[in-house]
Specification:
The complex is a heterodimer. Helices cover about 65% and strands about 0% of the residues of chain A. By secondary structure, chain A is mostly helical. In chain A, strands 1-2 form a two-stranded antiparallel sheet. The longest helix of chain A has 28 residues, at about 375-400. Chain B is α+β, with helices and mostly antiparallel strands. Chain B is built from three helices and eleven strands. In chain B, strands 1, 2, 4, 7, 9, 10 and 11 form a seven-stranded antiparallel sheet that branches. In chain B, strands 3-8-5-6 form a four-stranded antiparallel sheet, with no helix packed on it. The mean pLDDT of chain B is about 90. The chains are: A mainly alpha, B alpha+beta. At the A-B interface, helix 1 and helix 6 of A face helix 1, strand 1, helix 2 and helix 3 of B.
Chain lengths: ~400, ~200
């Protein structure tokens, strides 16, 4: 297929998916983002002051730059979207999802993700110089599910992280780290990648300090006006990633940080000993991904953080292609076993509200079988961990050869 | 060239199939229960006292009535009384009965009274009554609407046979389409149509 055909086909698939698949996160996020258009600059304090008067009493657990970025988008989109978009965002009552124009609200709110998605495909193409990767990114069902069905804004920090990596491979100074800093200012997770980015080039202490400062700079600037507000800190620590990373422990020791440091050490070692090792960075991202899904009780949208790096192996390492494919199939089973109605039939609310009455796989398993879905999920995480061990062994063998 | 044409035709078939599955087949098959009569407005709470009967009358909007739910509140799960819910027909004959314990009531939660579907329930009037014979200091409360002295409740009905479900779904989808903003709907369909054409011609 030509690039034009791939673009048209992928656009068609996206336009058929975007309006008809829903997850409540997009509504709760935009419920908060909309306050920027009402001249609310300190969302944390505003929520704290008006907690009992707001239709949705959730705290805002995201960073200030996220609020200003998507708040600005909402300020623009509310003028061109349907007038009942604001009514829907503020309706948290019994008929909160029975708005007939819900598909078009979703289309307007998910539009920035569409742009980011195509830019991601373009960067992947520039990064790996294989037209197939452009097609694979745009036509694979996993990224479509992660970006448009779950409908979270993670695709924007993912785009910035990948752009940062692209400029890093082009030996640019400061810029990659500044971009990574913006990504971190939108969502903290790219911090996980920071040490790998810092040690991508041969170790130079002065450069490492400068690059660290370039990363921290956007975060500091965006946080500075809020650090004196306790409402900001209490909202900020309400988010789940830090807790989830430390949740899984063996004899009191959290597994993810230990595994993380091991992978980082392996990366540093291979960078020093075998600097020309092909896809070394991506390989370690794959290890990190497997460690993450095997030791963290992850939200499905978090898979997107690693996905662009994992996708590459489909071309360059055919031997591990099947293993990655199996991993993703198992991830979908894992997601289906989460006790959340909105992660299964609930996605189809724009088509028919009655899907909320349809029992999820989790409810069916509880009702008709003796085993607990949580047990199957833990078993799946053990399989992911076994895959990680298998791949590290394979990597070790290949590096020696 | 021929291979590309095959892919294009295959995609168009897949696209039609996808729309058919998403809008017609999936709701027809997967949705087995739909919400019927609802009274969700509430501005008050009434304690459920012993030797009092709390009655709600309703007319079923659909056939195959299969559940009636009340919204109750048991603060801190303190109540452990036995309660009875009864469904009565228009002639005050008990059709179904459910005994439950206050311990199973949350703060708040719906108490779902599910029974085998009543096939010819459409436009029939029923009474649902809640009572307890035990007394306690830790009462559960029922959500009420003081404007018309009604209780918060909702009914569900089974979607019935494949044909019935198919018909209900078609009606709902067409109603939904009609109530959408027509200008945006037409623009959206035009966009989908033009990308399809562009893809076929590319």
């Amino acid at each position: 297929m030509t690039t034009k055909q791939v673009i048209l086909l992928s656009l068609l698939i996206r336009l058929l998916i975007i309006p008809f698949f829903y997850h409540p996160d997009i509504k709760s996020q935009y419920f908060h983002f909309q306050f920027l258009s009402q001249d609310v600059n300190n969302i944390y304090q505003y929520i704290s002051d008006n907690k009992y008067n707001l239709p949705n009493r959730d705290t805002f657990n995201y960073l200030p730059l996220t609020y200003f970025t998507f708040g600005s988008y909402f300020s623009f989109v509310k003028h061109i979207s349907l007038p009942d978009l604001s009514n829907w965002l503020n309706d948290w009552g019994n008929f909160k999802n029975s708005y007939p124009n819900l598909p078009y609200f979703l289309l307007s709110l998910k539009f920035p993700y569409l742009i980011a998605d195509y830019l991601l495909a373009l960067i992947l193409l520039k990064l790996y110089r294989r037209p197939e990767i452009f097609s694979l990114w745009l036509l694979n069902p996993i990224s479509i599910y992660l970006i448009y069905i779950l409908g979270n804004f993670d695709v924007i920090p993912v785009l910035l992280t990948l752009s940062s990596y692209y400029f890093l491979t082009k030996n640019k100074n400061i810029l990659p780290f500044f971009l990574l800093g913006i990504a971190i200012s939108l969502k903290l997770y790219p911090l996980i990648f920071l040490p790998f980015f810092l040690f991508y080039n041969p170790i130079n202490i002065k450069k490492i300090i400068l690059n660290t400062l370039a990363t921290i700079f956007p975060l500091l600037i965006s946080l500075l006006p809020f650090i004196y507000y306790s409402s900001f800190w209490s909202s900020f620590f309400g988010s789940g990633l830090t807790q989830k990373i430390l949740e899984f422990k063996i004899v009191g020791i959290p597994i993810f940080p230990v595994g993380y440091l091991t992978i980082l050490s392996s990366y540093l070692f291979s960078k020093t000993r075998f600097p020309e090792n092909f896809l070394n960075f991506e390989k370690h991202m794959l290890f990190l991904f497997l460690l993450f899904i095997s030791t963290v009780n992850f939200h499905p949208q978090w898979i997107l953080w690693f996905f662009p790096f994992v996708l590459v192996f489909n071309f360059f390492k055919p031997k591990i292609r099947s293993l990655i494919l199996i991993t993703f199939l198992l991830i979908f089973i894992y997601i289906a076993l989460i006790n959340d109605q909105y992660l299964f039939w609930g996605h189809l609310i724009p088509i028919d509200l009655a899907f909320t009455n349809t029992p999820s796989p989790y409810q069916l398993i509880i009702k008709y079988s003796l085993f607990k879905p949580e047990f199957v999920r833990q078993l799946l995480q053990l399989i992911f961990f076994a895959f990680l061990l298998l791949l590290t062994r394979f990597h070790e063998k290949n590096t020696k050869n | 060239m021929k291979k590309i044409l095959k892919i294009k035709i295959l995609f168009i078939i897949f696209e039609i199939l996808f729309i058919f599955i998403l809008f017609i087949l999936l709701p027809t098959v997967a949705i087995t229960s739909r919400t019927g009569t609802q009274n969700l407005e509430s501005d008050d709470l009434s304690p459920v006292l012993s030797n009092n009967t709390y009655i709600q009358t309703f007319t079923s909007s659909q056939n195959n009535l299969e559940s009636v739910s009340f919204l109750l509140k048991n603060p801190a799960n303190l109540n452990r009384q036995s309660f009875t819910l009864e469904l009565l027909d228009n002639n005050k004959n008990t059709i179904q009965k459910l005994d439950f314990n206050g311990f199973g009531v949350g703060d708040p939660s719906w108490i779902i009274f599910k029974f085998p579907p009543i096939q010819k329930s459409k436009n029939e009037t029923y009474k649902i009554q809640l009572f307890t014979n035990e007394s306690t200091d830790n009462h559960i409360s029922i959500y009420t609407n003081s404007k018309d002295n009604s209780y918060v409740f909702q009914t569900t009905h089974s979607t019935g046979s494949f044909y019935e479900s198919f018909k209900t779904n078609l009606d709902l989808q067409s109603q939904k389409y009609i109530s959408q903003n027509q200008l945006v709907s037409v623009l959206y369909l035009l966009l989908i149509f033009s990308i399809n054409i562009a893809f076929l011609l590319s």
